[in-house]
C-alpha cells in the first residue's frame, strides 16, 4: 500500500497539470499498467531536458514535463549546407505530423527540407531568422539558431526517446 | 527530342513501352517500375517540353527512386521563366513585358530548388542528376558535364566558384576579358536523396534572357528572399542530341560503369502516360501551377515608390511616367503576397497625411499584390487626390500585373473526382490517431479514478 501511495503521489502533480494542454504529451500512467523505464530510472526528474537527433540531421530538445520541443538543424548539417541565405518558416499554430516538412533552408542555391521529428502543434517560430538567416550557421544548436518550437502530441515524448539517436549515436552516424 | 530517335550505342538494357497497348494487358509504365528497379544507374530522357511536367517528374524521381540509385535526367522546356523557390517575382521578372502579347508564349514557373531566376527555351538543355544525399557535391556533376563539353571541342568550359559552368575568356591581353556563364546550377536536398540540376545554353534567345529578367520594380523592392546574381551569358552552340549522348557517356564513366558488367536502366518519359501512371506527378503539377505556389510563396517584401521622381516607363504604357507629388509617401509591406501594412499619403500637412495613410491602410489591407486589384482598391480611397489615384493606379496595374496560374486548386480531389494522395494520407493519419486515442482511453479511466481517490 505504501508503495502504491508513493507512486500515486508521483502521478499527482502530472494529473493536476492536466488543465494545461501540454501535459497530454506526458500521459498519466495506469497504476496497474507496467511503469515505463522512464519513471523508474533515476533520470526521470520532474523536468528533464532531453536532446535527440534524427537521420535528417535535425535536433530536437524537449522538456519532458511541458512537452515543448525545440527543433533546429545540427551543426554537422549547417556545415555541409554552407551559408544559409533564407529560411522558410511554418505558420504558428499550424499542426504538423512527424516526418512532415515544416520548412526549408536555402543555402548556396540548394533548398533542403526541414522535417518535423514529431507530431504536434507549432507554438513558436524563430522570427529572428527572417532578419538574419545566418544565425543557423553561427549557433545552430544554441539559443540563437533554433527554428521552431512544437507542443508535442500524445505519446511523442516516449516515442522519441525510443526512436531517435542520442548524441553519441548521432556522432557515429555522421561518421559512417 | 523525338520518341522515335534511335537508341544510343551504349544501350545494354532497354525497355520499350508502347502507349498503344491493349487495355486488358496494361503493362507497367517505366515510371511505375522505377521503385523496384534493381539498377544502380539510370538514364532518363523526357520527350515532353512542359516545364510543369518535367519539374514534377524530376521531383518524383528524387522522392521515389531506390535510395542508392543515381539517375541522369535530361529534358528541354518550352520558353519559360523559372524562379528559385524563395524568390520575389516582381523584383526578378519584367512582368509588364512578360504580360505583353508579344511574350504570350512564355510561361512563369516557380521551381522547388533554391537559387536564382533562369530563362528556358528550346535552345536550352536541362540536365539533372538525382543521387544519394551522401554523395551530394555541388561541383562533381558540373565537372562531368564540362568533360562532355571538352570532348565536343568546347575547351574553354570550366566550373567557377559559384558552381556554374562558364566559358573562360581567351583574349588574355584584350580589354574585354569577361567569362561568360553558360549553365546555372541549383540543388534540392531531402532526407536521403538530393539532386543537382542545371541549365545549359546551347542556342537560347539571349535577348529574351536579358529583357525578361530585368524588372522595372527591382530598385523599389526590398526583400528578405533570395536575389539572383546577374551574369554575362553566352550560347555554347553545340548540337543538343550529341551533347546529351556525351553527357550520358561521361555520367556512366564517372560512376565507374563498365560495359558488359552492369545493366543501366534507360527510360524515355512520355508525359501523358507518365502522368496517368503516377498520381504524385499529376498532383505535383497541379500544385506548381497554383497561384498559391507561384505567388504566395514569395517571401515578405516591401515596395516603396519615391516622391517627385518620374516612375520608369513600362512596356505597354509608352510615354507614361507619373510623378508622385512632393511629400508623398508610398510603402506597401507584403507577406505571402497579401498587403499587410500600407502607407500612402500625398499631403504635406502631417495630420491630413495621417488621415490619408489610415484610410489607405484600411482600404488596401489584405488585398493580394495583384495589379488590377490594387488599382481597383486604390480608387476607393476618398482622401487621395483624383489624378494621383488615377495615374498611380494605372501605372501599378501594369507594373505589378495580374496573376497567372490556377486560382482555385483542389488538392483533395483527383481528376476523376476521387480522393487525392494527400487526402488519403490525411485520412490514414486521422485513423491512426483515432486508434491511438481509443487505446489510450482503455487505459485511462482507471488512472483518473485512482487520482481522484487519492
Automatic annotation (TrEMBL), chain A:
Reported cofactor(s): (R)-lipoate
Keyword Transit peptide: yes
Keywords from the named record: Lipoyl, Mitochondrion, Transit peptide
Sequence ranges assigned to domain Lipoyl-binding in this UniProt record: 68-151
Protein name listed in UniProt: Glycine cleavage system H protein
Coiled coil: none
Cofactor-binding details, from the entry: Binds 1 lipoyl cofactor covalently.
GO terms of biological process kind: glycine decarboxylation via glycine cleavage system; protein lipoylation
Domain of life: Eukaryota
Oligomer and partners: The glycine cleavage system is composed of four proteins: P, T, L and H.
Family the entry assigns: Belongs to the GcvH family.
Pfam families (UniProt xref): GCV_H
Function field: The H protein shuttles the methylamine group of glycine from the P protein to the T protein.
CDD domains in the cross-refs: GCS_H (cd06848)
GO CC, one annotated term: mitochondrion
Keyword Transit peptide appears in the UniProt entry: yes
Modified residues annotated as N6-lipoyllysine in this record: 109
Subcellular location(s) per record: Mitochondrion
InterPro entries with a match to the protein in the record: 2-oxoA_DH_lipoyl-BS (IPR003016), Biotin_lipoyl (IPR000089), GCV_H (IPR002930), GCV_H/Fam206 (IPR033753), GCV_H_sub (IPR017453), Single_hybrid_motif (IPR011053)
UniProtKB/TrEMBL annotation, chain B:
Record GO cellular component, one term: mitochondrion
Coiled coil feature spans: none
GO biological process: protein lipoylation
Xref: Pfam families: LplA-B_cat (PF21948)
Membrane-crossing segments per the record: none
Domain BPL/LPL catalytic, residue spans: 66-255
Domain of life per record: Eukaryota
Gene3D superfamilies (UniProt xref): Bira Bifunctional Protein, Domain 2
NCBIfam families listed in its UniProt record: lipoyltrans
Protein function: Catalyzes both the ATP-dependent activation of exogenously supplied lipoate to lipoyl-AMP and the transfer of the activated lipoyl onto the lipoyl domains of lipoate-dependent enzymes.
Entry protein name: Putative lipoate-protein ligase A
Source species taxonomy: Eukaryota, Fungi, Dikarya, Ascomycota, Pezizomycotina
